[in-house]
Amino acid sequence: xxxxxxxxxxxxxxxxxxxxxxxxxxxxxxxxxxxxxxxxxxxxxxxxxxxxxxxxxxxxxxxxxxxxxxxxxxxxxxxxxxxxxxxxxxxxxxxxxxxxxxxxxxxxxxxxxxxxxxxxxxxxxxxxxxxxxxxxxxxxxxxxxxxxxxxxxxxxxxxxxxxxxxxxxxxxxxxxxxxxxxxxxxxxxxxxxxxxxxxxxxxxxxxxxxxxxxxxxxxxxxxxxxxxxxxxx
Length: 233
Description:
alpha/beta; about 25% strand
């Protein structure tokens, strides 16, 4: 890489520095907007003991679920885990640690981490198991719990378009957790459908400024569908 050009030519270069026992924050929701190639590179690297922060853990044989198959994940911080039988098996057998987090709280943990905010108060989870062991405080007569923010060694993100300095645009619902994840990694790696020259993206439509992005790679995507529902004739 030279100057402000953050484009790398291989997945090995994109994930250089990945090691055992790291924390990885991953964008995506189900199989929508997931960095497929970066996940595959993590699988091929063989690293173990990972903590993965992501809304969910893919499916049994795709997305982050591939890392479960090889037992590369030690802990999942997630809000939804219902699409993965191997996830269930590993959790119930004690092989996988799981920290269930309300979905909005998980998004804010990433956003706050990226903004340098160490913790925040939220009413979500008050009076439930989520609140156990956490500080409780009242504001304007309502109870709130203190939640710590999240940062990771790596953030892996999927975007639609990027320029070479890392300015990003996401497409439709594939945006999901990606903008928050992109800010919260010490090294943020973005897999994109299209890379354009600087100046080609409308500044008014940039979702993630390039200041948050360290590496960009052009990907090719399978875009599987989790559940196909066909209309009855």
